[in-house]
């Protein structure tokens, strides 16, 4: 076999600047050794490994490895690379675009890499090049392309792809559209002739006729052969009204490397070769990656599941990065796949209704099955005959719920007349972990009674007053209490297009107005019900601040302090201000005493049944066609407590008002709530004293320590982007792992920005210490 000629530029390579960028100036490059024995002549490129020995300031020797990627100067390959601008595009990606995409994640407290680091040689070598770190030297490796990715590997690829796509969508929001080099890519009319050469279908078509089932496709495909490139050009046009991302466009096995930990699990995934990136539908990468690289047995059978897995991680990362546009829906991705060449298969006749699982880490209890749900559905659905398909998935993402297991159950059912329909429910039951801080409270007893007794009472009060359009909570279709657990089965509000607001962004003014009105409606009905029926059950006299739970709370508080103070010192506040706040922070015991004190009921005040957990995830909305809010509703009634409405108001405003209005519109929020409260109390013919707006403001100061309690606790949790490890147990975990978790929580930029305005606000109100 003829050995290809080693390029002349091999002898002129100098990498001092690259070494200095890695190790800092002051070190000395001893040897630079291009490994010509391992040089790879690929179709259009040359890959040359380079080994470098460096002497550090302390005289120790460090070895570095690079890969120099250059243009293959054979005539046709050089023509392809030059006309399609492959090196110019890849240079832009490695040196400009990828660092910005990675920085988007860094600004929200997440570290991710999309490929090897890129460097520059000290001098030009007469050809286009990219100098990259050698990932193989760091333990990364490819998987045999003849074997293909199994499901575990492919999901890691799709997870990284979702990160990449999400960052590219946010990039456009922050920096503007990518250049024509990226938006048009290689698929332009100017490149039509060379694309026809590269995509000559004759060899494939001649081979197709020899395949066992190829004959039946040959006739249909031969008709498209002449217009193949035209179809490609048309398919790659950017549809501006759809969700678009920067596609890698060549993401197959050879361009993906994995790093494994000591136990053989994938630790990281890296992409290579960004020469043909293209802005457009994510369907481009999904097709290319799954169809080119998945093992045969999962390529089609798992296609829909893999798309769904990608979609969940795409949404997760868009939210993490505070994407401002409308979030894509699963059917948007599936429609894009349909439009780009493959019909997504339907399951059991349902129309793209396969449930998305937002938490693959949730271990769904085995008792949540068809047998358990059959009598529930039979009671709820007229003419029910049987269950055809039964799918339980997590109802919430990791970090969205800390006190319960939430499962969405989707069932395709057969009716007695032979027709089919799909139904879904939300099952809520106790966490099985006894380590959870809520396990010793009356959460489920409270919620059970709210659904069985009080919500029906409140709705009845409004109906008797002639108001039929008040909604407070979803319909509860089943309640079961056993020695092991309490279980609630609720209607699935997503069936009526209800959804949460992104908790990381919070409520804007239209949403917070609706929430304040909803709180006022709930509070007014609870006060009227008290007037008519007397005190509520003793379980509503207590919240989580009880003597039983004191040791757990104090331990949790004390465990967090070191990392909390460490994180505070990174916030954008004056150093002397931060040290003053730290010096005046309460101890765990002092904080618990202040929390107990602010939870006590003054019967001379105006009191209501508080929701008790009124943050953004516990409100759902549906919308009119023009985007205006149509309906709003509470969920999660586990924390209800009798006391001052200041509890719910502080809790909701601190956790859930968007940052731009959280403090700026605070007094206006109280006024909006008060106006609706007075209106509802008058509708219900409340016979006791109604507080004035001034008295309500005084009440907000009297119970003001609810602000710092909420800011130091729930706000930190609700500001943390989705995290599979999120749990109360993790917050109290001793040791390095727990410390890292707590530090990430309190240094998270979303939380830090909120506390930078809340701490001075609390101080100005005189409520920082609960005196």
TrEMBL record:
Domain of life: Eukaryota
Span of domain CHK kinase-like: 130-320, 488-683
Lineage, uppermost ranks: Eukaryota, Metazoa, Ecdysozoa, Arthropoda, Hexapoda
Any one Gene Ontology molecular-function term assigned to this protein's record: transferase activity
Family annotation (SMART domains): CHK
Name of the protein in question: CHK kinase-like domain-containing protein
InterPro entries hit by this protein: CHK_kinase-like, EcKL, Kinase-like_dom_sf
Coiled-coil region: none
Pfam families: EcKL (PF02958)
Organism: Drosophila willistoni
Entry keyword set: Transferase
